[in-house]
Design brief:
The chain is mainly alpha-helical. It is built from six helices and two strands.
C-alpha cells in the first residue's frame, strides 16, 4: 500500500467539517450506526484517534467507551486528530509493526484503518444531522477497496449489519454505507 497519510488528513478534514456543522442540540440524535447517538459517534472517533496515537507512541490511551469529548466535541476531535497525525508522521512509523484487531501489521495498515473508519463515521454523522452525504470520492473509493478486499464479519458483535438496499441513483458514499449495513435515508 502506498503512503495513505495524505488521504488520512483529508478524512480528518472532512470529519472536522461535518462535526463543525453539528449544533449542540443535535448531539443526542440517533445515527445510522445504531450503537451510538451523534455524540457517541464523535466520542468513538476521538477515542479511536487517541488509542491509535497511544499505540504508535507507546503511551496509554483511553479505554473503549470512555467519555473523551468534554464540553467541546469539535475541539476534542481537532486535538485527537492532531495527536494522531503527529504520531503517524514520526520517522519509520509506516514500516514499523503494531498489534491490530486483525493481527500484527505495519503502520501503513493503521493509517488505512483510521482513514476508513473516519470516512464511514463521517457518513454516519452527515446522515444523522441532515448534512450532504456526498463524501470525498477518493476516500469512498479507498474505503470501499479496503473493505471489499476480504469478507467482513456481519451480525452479532460485529459493527457491520447485513448489506442494505440502495435507492436508485444513490451516491457512492451511500452505496458504501449500505454495504456496511446502514439504512440509507431519503435524499432531502
Amino acid at each position: 500500500m502506498a503512503d495513505p497519510r495524505a488521504l488520512h488528513r483529508r478524512a480528518g478534514a472532512m470529519a472536522e467539517d461535518v462535526i463543525a456543522r453539528i449544533p449542540a442540540e443535535r448531539l443526542g440524535d440517533p445515527t445510522p450506526c445504531t450503537e451510538w447517538d451523534v455524540r457517541g459517534v464523535i466520542n468513538h472517533m476521538v477515542g479511536g484517534n487517541l488509542r491509535f496515537a497511544a499505540l504508535v507512541t507507546g503511551g496509554s490511551g483511553p479505554e473503549r467507551g470512555d467519555d473523551v469529548l468534554g464540553d467541546d466535541p469539535l475541539a476534542a476531535f481537532r486535538d485527537s486528530f492532531g495527536r494522531l497525525c503527529a504520531a503517524f508522521d514520526a520517522e519509520g512509523v509506516l514500516e514499523q509493526t503494531f498489534p491490530t484487531p486483525f493481527g500484527d501489521g505495519p503502520g501503513v495498515m493503521l493509517v488505512g484503518m483510521r482513514t476508513c473508519e473516519m470516512t464511514m463515521h463521517t457518513w454516519d454523522l452527515a446522515a444523522a444531522t441532515g448534512q450532504p452525504r456526498d463524501l470525498d470520492p477518493d476516500l469512498v473509493t479507498f474505503t470501499d477497496a479496503a473493505f471489499r478486499s476480504r469478507p467482513i464479519p456481519r451480525g452479532g458483535q460485529s459493527p457491520f449489519g447485513a448489506e442494505q438496499p440502495v435507492p436508485e441513483g444513490a451516491a457512492e458514499a451511500d452505496r458504501l454505507a449500505a454495504y456496511f449495513g446502514r439504512t440509507i435515508p431519503a435524499q432531502a
